[in-house]
Amino acid sequence: MNLQRFPMLQFKFSTKHLVFSLALSYGMYNVYSDIERFLNETLFYFTETEDGFVKKKNAFNLSFIYEKNNKGNLETYLRDYTNRIPVFERENGLMVGTAKYNYSNFTKEERKLVCSNISPLYNFTGRIPMFKLETTHLE
């Protein structure tokens, strides 16, 4: 073997495999969500959806969106089959959607439960009522 050609052959070999590896990685990255969806559909094929939860056909379409706002700060959203819903961090955990959005999706029983846990507190003058929300865990 000609030793002068060896570095060039080694460079060609490693470049060819590097390009192949990068192309394969790029392709896998682009179809990852399709692969994940296929695997989930396969794993949960015979599984029924619990009442009140996202239907199986829509559940595997959920994803997160990460964006920078005008101030350069990160905002996180949940994308479902129709909406882009903001994800907030609160004192007791995550809140998906605004309070108005969540309240509009409550059932009558859930609205009753939330509203029954509001007790009026009066300010020092006694003129303007202020409200305190007593939180409970829904399980």
For the largest beta-sheet, the strand count, sense and barrel status come to: 4 strands, antiparallel
Compute the average pLDDT: 78
Report Rg.
27 Å
* First and last CA, distance: 74 Å
Classify the secondary structure makeup into a structural class: alpha+beta
**Secondary-structure element sequence?**
HHEEEEHHEE
How large is the share of residues in beta strands? 15-25%
Q: How many strands in all?
A: 6
Q: Are there runs of 5+ residues with pLDDT below 50, and where?
A: 122-139
Helix run count? 4
- Describe the global form: elongated
Main sheet: strand order:
1-2-3-4
- Summarize the amount of helix as a percent range: 40-55%
Briefly, what is this?
The protein is of the alpha+beta class and 139 residues long. The chain has helices at 6-43, 56-59, 99-104, 108-116; strands spanning 63-68, 74-79, 84-90, 93-96, 118-122, 129-133. The strands form 2 sheets. The chain has a 4-stranded antiparallel sheet with strand order 1-2-3-4, with no helix packed on it. Strands 5-6 form a two-stranded antiparallel sheet.
